[in-house]
Write a structure and sequence with these properties.
binds magnesium ion, 6-stranded mixed sheet, binds guanosine-5'-triphosphate, alpha/beta, Rossmann fold, 6 strands
């Protein structure tokens, strides 16, 4: 095999196959968290993996997550992404993560009201570039975060209604939006206060995640198998064309060799003629 790598396949090709093969055998579901910077993505993921010290996914009031980071938790591989509006190249990172993702959590903080232009732009980009935009939206849960910052629940419902309308306008579908408070969930767990845990609505989010996993598990595996098959097909095509290239080079060399011998035979015949003539002249 090692001779074949470099000559026909690259290390990257082999690595991609290994990653996909692993994801088929371990059957982990990739869940990607996305949204504007500082909207609570990393905090939410820490809550979902019960890391109340918040050491797994770094959180802060500044642009904290600057690269995609993943963490395996039970049957799920959680992926944290940088904020959509933080830096221009961050958007591409998020977009690439979504392409490989099975289920998405789109986080939006209630403190900024309904979706802002940047989020609408991102969702529109998905709609315009996705083979099947409904497939994205059906696999996405929208989370309205930091709801403990708003006193009146009616205000929260108002924002939810506006956001539903915004999403409906883009995808023509009524999305699920779950209002959560990571702060309440964390406090509830640390101080053993069930009422806070219940009020945080993290349980409702977990139920919805599990429902989506069950619903999409067969198609998730199918998609991965198809992706692996495509990579294999591509590699076979690639190594075949490399093989053809080498065959062509060899045949070119063979032609050169043939030409050389033809010339050599011609030269030998000429030399023979010359020598014969010389003998003839000697005899005369
Ligand atoms: N009050 C309140 N604050 C929260 C909640 N969730 C997160 N925060 C705070 O919001 C700030 C940003 O949280 P992060 O989880 O780091 O946000 P992020 O979206 O990952 O940010 P980037 O990685 O920079 O894109 C932190 O100060 C959190 O403590 C919540 O439910 N309630
Ligand atoms: Mg973060």
């Amino acid at each position: 095999m090692s001779i074949l790598i470099n000559k026909y396949l690259s290390f990257e090709d082999i690595e991609n196959i290994e990653i996909l093969k692993k994801s088929i055998s371990n059957q982990l579901v990739n869940i990607t968290c996305m949204g504007l910077y500082n909207h609570g993505k990393s905090s939410l993921l820490n809550a979902l993996i019960k890391d109340f010290d918040e050491e797994t996914f770094k959180t802060a009031d500044v642009r904290e997550t600057i690269t995609n980071k993943s963490f395996e938790y039970g049957k799920i591989n959680y992926i944290d992404t940088p904020g959509l509006n933080a830096e221009e190249y961050d958007d591409k990172r998020v977009y690439d993560a979504v392409k490989e993702s099975d289920i998405n959590i789109f986080v939006h903080a209630v403190t900024t009201g309904a979706f802002v232009e940047k989020e609408i732009e991102f969702l529109n980009k998905i709609k315009d570039n996705w083979g099947n935009p409904l497939d994205f939206i059906n696999r996405t849960i929208f989370v309205l975060s930091r709801v403990d910052n708003i006193e009146d629940e009616k205000d929260i419902d108002l924002e939810i209604d506006k956001m539903k309308e915004q999403i409906n306008e883009i995808f023509n579908i009524n999305p699920l939006i779950i209002p959560v408070s990571v702060l309440r969930y964390k406090k509830g767990n640390i101080e053993n206060k069930n009422i806070l845990i219940k009020k945080s609505k993290l349980g409702l989010l977990e139920d919805n995640i599990n429902e989506l996993i069950e619903k999409f598990k067969p198609s998730i595996l199918e998609t991965r198998k198809k992706r692996l098959q495509n990579i294999y097909d591509e590699l076979i095509k690639k190594s075949n064309s490399k093989f053809q290239e080498k065959k062509f080079e060899l045949s070119k060399q063979k032609n050169i060799q043939e030409e050389f011998f033809k010339n050599l035979y011609k030269d030998v015949a000429q030399v023979e003629d010359v020598v014969k003539n010389m003998y003839k002249r000697l005899g005369e």
